[in-house]
Specification:
The protein is α+β, with helices and mostly antiparallel strands and about 450 residues long. The protein has 13 helices and 22 strands. The strands form five sheets. It has an eight-stranded mixed β-sheet with strand order 5-4-13-14-15-12-16-19. Strands 7-2-1-11-18-17 form a six-stranded mixed β-sheet. The protein has a three-stranded antiparallel β-sheet with strand order 8-9-10. Helix 4 (about 90-100) crosses helix 12 and helix 9 (about 305-330) packs antiparallel against helix 10 (about 335-370).
Length: about 450
């Protein structure tokens, strides 16, 4: 189907490896270049919602993920005094509706699983970052750090928020940062656990918040979010291990849940880092034969856990478009630059609205949890707790229904609910009440956000 068409991928983390596997399943040739080793012990955790796990199931990966995770089932929301404002089992309803769980796992373990599913490891080049590229009439040539050159048809910049490919495109980076995050993985002793398996704890303070979750037996994945003065790339701060340690001690008294503190979690850590949280969407995702994907194109705050899921949606959109283009190419001829430009434009039309929505949702939840205004505090304490969990799950089902599937692979599990065009969720009957109730909370949150943005 693909003839001489080859995709060159810069970046071998979640997006790059998932794209490589998707291309293999579609029969499309590729080469992938990663500046470090594959599956490095960097980063703490990654969270997937049901729509992403369905995508992994299409690729034949979900069974390996399922073996090492504990589905998240219960969530507790605390204020700064330790009072439990809300207890939620919405995640259980969500799993019932969509047939896949919401989960956390170690990022390094996820990368290891993805790496193991690569059919032809010879296509993977570690310690081989892309440092330059040159477009030709027939394709594109990339040069790696060791001086090797590789020729392909298109180049995908999946090399993260500090993307080298994006720098080579000379696009201005419009990211801002108003929060920093201390994220870590800590040991969770089964004899005296910080919190039970399958549980999420959130605590809301003025201008900071924390989250802890047990998605893997014996481990806690946790985050401390701190509001900071606004900075803009490339001037967003870079933090050291000493900075992380100092912040953990400064906010060591914060209790994500009953009976333990940030200080306790930090003492029990396996690994942890302090980073600036960039937010924004690059204005131009493609130029010539080059396309940006994942964090290289859009970056959102992690409170809601949408970033990795959004990146996987981009992988699905791109692979679907490539499969359709190559299938329709006459006589197996390579796509022209005009056809590629049309494909990239279609990708932008399909994916940018979703990225814009996710950016806004993520920003809202980050400010909501940090209680930046009195209206947001009111919503967390008095509005959200009275909205039934079924309705919250129903609203998320509507959101998840906008995620693409891989159109060239079968869907292995069909959701238990249908979503109609008006956004009502049906399971043998209808309820538009979810939109009414959750919409009320959303309206109050929106007002609160508008006030702090003035």
């Amino acid at each position: 189907m693909t003839g001489d068409f080859k995709v060159l991928i810069a970046g071998g983390s979640l997006v790059g490896l998932t794209l490589a596997i998707s291309l293999e399943r579609a029969g499309i040739d590729y080469e992938l270049f990663e500046k470090e080793d594959f599956a490095p012990q960097l980063g703490a955790s990654i969270g997937f919602y049901p729509q992403s796990n369905q995508l992994m199931d299409q690729l034949g990966i979900w069974s390996d993920i399922e073996k090492v995770v504990v589905p998240l089932r219960e969530r507790y929301h605390f204020d700064e005094t330790g009072y439990c404002m809300e207890t939620s089992i919405a995640l259980q309803y969500l799993q019932h509706y969509l047939k896949y769980p919401t989960m956390f796992m170690e990022r390094s373990e996820m990368l290891r699983i993805l790496h193991n599913h690569i059919a032809d490891p010879r296509k993977l080049h570690s310690q081989s970052s892309v440092v330059a590229y040159e477009e030709t009439p027939d394709g594109i040539i990339v040069t790696t750090v060791d001086g090797q050159t590789f020729q392909g048809s298109i180049l995908i910049g999946a090399d993260g928020v500090h993307s080298r490919v994006r720098q080579l495109m000379a696009d201005r980076i419009p990211f801002t940062s108003e929060y920093k995050c201390l994220f870590a993985v800590s040991r969770n002793d089964p004899a005296t656990p910080f919190l039970p398996n399958g549980t999420v704890h959130n605590v809301y303070h003025q201008d900071h918040s924390a989250l802890a979750a047990t998605g893997v037996p014996g481990l806690v994945f946790w985050f401390l979010f701190i509001r900071t003065p606004i900075t803009r790339t490339p001037h967003c701060p870079r933090y050291t291990d000493a900075d992380a340690d100092a912040l953990a001690h400064e906010h060591g008294h914060v209790a994500p849940g009953p009976g333990y503190t940030i200080r306790d979690l930090w003492t029990a850590r396996v690994k942890g880092s302090l980073v600036s949280l960039e937010e924004g969407i690059v204005s131009q995702w493609s130029y010539g034969r080059v396309l940006l994907l994942g964090d290289a194109a859009h970056k959102v705050t992690p409170n809601a856990g949408f970033g990795g899921n959004l990146a996987l949606e981009g992988v699905a959109h791109l692979t679907n478009a490539l499969v359709a283009l190559l299938r329709d190419s006459s006589s197996g001829a390579a796509p022209t630059i005009v056809q590629l430009a049309a494909l990239f434009a279609e990708f932008d039309r399909n994916h940018r609205p979703r990225a814009t929505t996710v950016l806004g949702l993520s920003a809202t939840i980050t400010r909501y949890e940090a209680q930046q205004t009195g209206i947001l505090r009111f919503a967390a304490r008095y509005l959200s707790p009275v909205v039934p969990d079924r309705w919250k799950a129903a609203l998320f089902v509507r959101f998840a229904s906008g995620a693409p599937r891989l159109e060239f692979l079968p869907v292995k599990t069909v959701a238990a609910v249908e979503v109609d065009v008006e956004g009502s969720v049906r399971e043998g009957g209808g309820t538009g009440k979810a939109w009414l109730a959750v919409g009320l909370v959303g309206a109050v949150v929106a007002v609160g956000l508008a006030r702090f943005r003035k």
